[in-house]
Design brief:
By secondary structure, the protein is mostly helical. Helix content is 74%, strand content 0%. It is built from six helices and no strands.
Amino acid sequence: MSDDLLNILSNSNKDIDNQKLMDYLSDKLSADEKHEFEKTLIDSQLESDAVEGLETFENKKNLLAFAEQLNRNLQLQLQKKKSAKEKRRIKENPWIYVTIILIIIIILIGFFVIWKYLH
């Protein structure tokens, strides 16, 4: 298998060996090794669902292209979320804070002047 194909789960759970996963998907493991690998999947529903999804691929070469497409889409979505978050965030501008404080001070002075005038 190519090194790129082995790195599909490079950031995933370290309990699952990528080479063993690819051998499992390619049906290169013995019955005992398959059973042992399946026992490691029992603990995590996500991992077992991922392996089941990977098993549905008939052509393992398409698996690499699919993983690359998922990575590109994920990066695009993350970039969109990051830019939207930046737009929502108030830009750091000290003049806004100074203006707000001055307005509050003027309102307070006005309140006390009117209060003194009425009493």
